[in-house]
Structure prediction request, 569 residues.
Amino acid sequence: MLYQWIYPERVSQKISERDIKKFDIHPAIAKILEQRNISSSEALQRFFEPKLENLYDPFLFKDMNIAVERIIKAMRNGENIMIYGDYDVDGVTSVTILYDGLFKLGGKVSFFIPSRFQEGYGLSQDGIDAAKERQVSLIITVDCGITAVEESVYAKSLGIDVIITDHHEPGLTLPPAIAIIDPKLDTCSYPFKELAGCGVAYKVLQGLCQRLEMDPSFPEQYLDLVAVGTAADIVSLVDENRILVKNGLTILQSNPRPGIFALLEICSLIEKRISVSTIVFIIAPRINAVGRISNAKKAVHLLAAKSLQQARNIARIMEKENNARKKIDEMTFNEAQEMVENTIDIDSKRILVLAKKDWHPGVVGIVASRIMEKYNRPSILLSIQDGIGKGSARSTSNFNIYSALKHLEHLFISFGGHRYAAGITITEEDIAVLDEEINMGSEGELQIEEMVPKLNIDAEITFTQLTASFFNSIKRLSPSGPSNMRPVFVSKNLQVYGKATVVGKNHLKVKFKQDGVVVDAIGYRLGEYVKIFNKPKTRINCAYVIEEAKWSGQTTIQMKIKDFEVSDG
Prediction:
């Protein structure tokens, strides 16, 4: 057993028999929905029918009215508007939504995405100077800006108005912008707090269309970008995010824009099913790569491309940069892993702080995530250049890394983020202090003996329950992601049917039999355990998710093994 299996607690609120029939819910899936607090008729309807008309009124945002009026004034007066974003997928899609959207509405609009290596994250003085050179009088930030107090003051001193749209946690002092659109503001009554930056940008476009009395379907052409940015940013896929992603996936599947088509084409995915996993593992890394290796403005040009040939040209460049990024990523991960194994007493560390001169700053966030997953500890990776450490923090579900870093803000040159991820800049001499203080400060929240990775189990089932009806009910839970993950099932006392083998890159291939039912299973990167499965009379308890497998034109149900243990019978 690689994980500690956590079984669900009993819930008191049940889905009524009437609603089970009305929404055609399989009884086992009904229990999972109950555990996820989706049990009322209203919640079930919103979940199973994620319609665009159920999106909230954008004017429930604090300052939305001010922001919309200022943008309309700028467009009518022919002012130069700059969309100022971030270099990750959420930032790139957010920029494209407002850049392309305002252009089509008649605005004189340009965009600016800072270089990770020169200006760094967020609104900067250099970026504002670039706006001044372009004679910009209105900057609209997307996916950044909520902590840019000094920068907003500087923009104001140059006669440039700033509208901030963001979804990150605000600091103690808010920037002196003319409007701030952020669902996490204490003073904002917007009902859904977990929008990604692209979701907030979409709401601004909705607000503009309402005020201009335009066709309300105008913003819907950008739902594919909202789906990509939202899925890539790993925010909760419930409520409004579920509506946006579900509808965006439909566009991605049926009518992808030239830029997305070119990315799918280069990955041989045309006419394949597009899911959240496709976005997270295939589309997003290629968009991210240019921001990590060169400059993310290429990605905006790709997503805003009008011709397929233009999109293909950009996609080829991005593919080369993604391949380069993967090599750097792997080298950095190996060095970080070696550092943990050789220089750190893992049994005494709650939080891993790793730093090295000249690590590529574009991949430290990815590697921090991989180190966190391997050692099940919040991890901070820093690239040191010219005495300054710049890097990323990633956290496990049981620890708020933003809050922990907030207590140590006095150590940082700059810092920002949210519960699960943060970016920091710190002097080289303060890195050891950060390591010591964040580990001391986490003693009350993180216990070393509890750092066995946990696997949340949704239900224990038998193979006789694996019917077509059951599988169809599981598919209706998608799109899956944080707060609505694919269900993890446990089946016990399984017989290994035939012989287990190792296929591909160390993947375990096995058939299980229970109560006369045989099911195929795959365990990615579990090939080293094949001997256990081939011992005579071995019985296995298996934790897994259910997925479709296609082979020779046939579609079957397959178990994707998450963890296993040898059964005691």
About this structure: Residues 48 and 476 are 7 Å apart (CA to CA). The longest helix spans residues 308-343.
